[in-house]
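BUG: 3D viewer hangs when loading the predicted structure for this chain

Environment: internal workstation, default settings.
Expected: structure renders.
Actual: progress bar stalls at 90%.

Input used:
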Amino acid sequence: NSEDGFFPDDENVRLLEEIEREYQASIDFVRVIDEIETGSLLTNETWE
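Structure tokens produced before the viewer hung:
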């Protein structure tokens, strides 16, 4: 896999890969590497 050299082998990347395998045919993912605060995925400002 050409992504193996770029993305670390950790639980977050493994989860993304599992989701991609399951839903690849129906959705596309845009990967962004960004530090976020705990709980910030629940706030509107994060997604704007």
